[in-house]
Amino acid sequence: MKNHEVYESWKQVKSQIDVSQNFTGEVMDQINSWEQSRNFRRFNVARFVELISFHPLAKTGLVAAGAIAGILRLMIMIHTILSNGVING
Amino acid sequence: MTEETGIIRAVLEGDTESFRLLVQRYQKPIIRMIANLINDRHTCEDIAQEVFLAAYKKLPTFDSARSSFSTWLFTIARNKSINAMKKRRVSSTGNPPENPDFSEPADSLIRDELFAKLDRALQSLHPGHKRALIMAEFENLPYEQIAQIEGVRIGTIKSRINRAKQRLRSALDGIDGDIQ
């Protein structure tokens, strides 16, 4: 047996590959899962923006929450300044 | 516009199912290349799945002016194989060679032994030489495409393949004839 014959036979064996019948299906399942999770993330953000934009109550709630946060922050700042005696010297 | 370009465009426009055509077209060469690179026919499909998923995710970045889709996909497969080999040293010797048409058991044993020698020689090659040989000999990719995948010049690929063949030839020392 000549070695180039051995080599060619070996190449032939190495070139043979059996692919699982459901390989393509599994890849597509993974892709679809990834797409779904991506769309879910997008959907949540989109839904939140939509809710805020189109529902007056949601808009009012957001503005009220912002105002309360602002007032609280202002109060904390004043308290900090006064307790450090910055104004009183 | 080639058929493949049309498929890619359809996928990019939201037709996810069209990607199935690309998977079906390239699954065999990609799995085969990974199997030979990592020398493990059991996990090669898992890595191939990662390759196709990565290709799908990165598809918007694919530039047909820079390379063909197959070159791009083989490059992803190459990189995933290298990462897989780094993560876990695959010590498996792979599947034993099949002996399709031997009437004499003695012939079969001799051939098994020779195939095992070639397998060992292949796995002992420098990684870059091994990849070049596998892509050239088992995937029949042109040197230019291999050079693109490896990111080196064609001359380097030719040299790597020659060296790899020399190593394989020496593994069969004592047998008449030469590897072509």
Description:
The complex is a heterodimer of chains A (89) and B (180). Chain A is mainly α and 89 residues long. Chain A contains three helices and no strands. Chain A has helices at 3-15, 23-54, 56-83. With 180 residues, chain B is mainly α. Chain B is built from eight helices and no strands. In chain B, helix 2 crosses helix 6, helix 3 (44-58) crosses helix 4 (69-87) and helix 4 (69-87) crosses helix 7. The radius of gyration of chain B is 18 Å and the shape is elongated. The interface between A and B is medium-sized, with 27 and 39 residues.
Summarize the structure in short.
The complex is a heterodimer of chains A (89) and B (180). Helices cover 82% and strands 0% of the residues of chain A.
Q: Helix count of chain B, per DSSP?
A: 8
Greatest interface: A-B, 27 and 39 residues
Q: Indicate the radius of gyration of chain A in whole angstroms.
A: 33 Å
Q: What's the average pLDDT of chain A?
A: 85
Shape of chain A: elongated
Name the beta content range of chain A. Answer: under 5%
Strand % of chain B is under 5%
Number of extended strands of chain B: 0
What kind of sheet is the major sheet of chain B? none
Helix/strand/pairing class of chain A, anyone?
Answer: mainly alpha
Helix content of chain B: 55-70%
How far is the N terminus from the C terminus of chain B? 39 Å
- What letter string, H or E per element, gives the SSE order of chain A? HHH
Order of helices and strands of chain B: HHHHHHHH
Question: Between the first and last Cα atoms of chain A, what is the distance in angstroms?
Answer: 103 Å
Report the sheet with the most strands of chain A, covering strand number, pairing sense and barrel closure.
Answer: none
